[in-house]
Amino acid sequence: MRATYLYGAGDVRVADVPDPIIKEPTDAIVRVVRACVCGSDLHPYHSMAASADGSSMGHEFVGVVEETGGAVTTVKPGDFVIAPFAWSDGTCEFCREGLHTSCRYGGFWNSPGVGGGQAEAVRVPLADGTLVAVPVEETSPLIPSLLTLSDVYGTGYHAAVKANVSPRTTVTVIGDGAVGLLAVLSAKQLGAERIILMGRHTVRTDLGRAYGATDVVAERGPEGIAKVRELTGGDGTHVVIEAVGHMPAYEQAVGVVRPGGVISRVGVPQYEAAPVGFASLFGPNITLTGGPAPARAYIETLLPAVLDGTVNPGKVFDREVALDDVAAGYRAMDEREALKVLVRP
Q1: Phi first, then psi: what are they for 53, rounded to 5°?
Q2: Residue 156: HSE in the Cβ half-sphere, 13 Å Cα cutoff
Q3: Within a 10 A sphere around the Cβ of 99, how many other Cβ atoms?
Q4: Whose C-alpha in 50, 51, 184, 274 is 20 to 30 A from the C-alpha of 160?
């Protein structure tokens, strides 16, 4: 089969690799219907050292079950399924607590022996705990929105949930990528009435307004902080969702959070240390939370509104490429020509 591999910074290729096979009775083989390029895929795209063997890519996909191991009971061949970006057994204490990304027996796509989602097919370990069957056909117009439940919608929702967003909280979202925009949507769903989106790309921030942002701040750094403070009477907001992962975004979050507020980070941090001392977090009683979203924990909550059309998170996809052209999809996202790219095997 064909699968996407990264062989070094900027070097994306489609390779011929062995078809996945059932290795454990708890496995399933899923034929990929749609995958996508994630903003976090751009981190190794920028920095990975050259490798002769390469690294498989992709952690967001939906597809059709082709085969199951003898112990699988919750999905069957022919089912259309959503695959969260981490696989998990669904029964360990961490899964029962809704923290599937810390499953005692789980892991992440592209781990040794487990391929990536930007491919024609994937072996899914622990299929019963991981896959969610959805009653749609693979030609459904809902496919892009269903795909967001594998990661970016769940990640935006996780950021808002961890920050305890409610009708009483004002919210700032830093970042106008797919996660930031879906964090806006999630904050709106949880009742926030004032949502400030910090972003500079008009097409994206317009979508943010459609999802519920009440204000847009294009300025960055001290100017951006001053603008948010001005909009909030000098106080800042109760919640800040940092959906970028770079130090300037974190520093901006510290600058706009209200005393007693919460910074919720879901942008994969590209730094090892961040200010957490007296002047930054301790003195004003700021809570720091966030982390890898247990997307599996949120699918049943978010799925009904996707199926009935109440929400359309799939609007974050603004380009589609065939698997053979996936390198062009990476370039488009890297050059800010596309917000989020669908990949069609």
Answers
A1: -85, -25
A2: 30
A3: 17
A4: 274
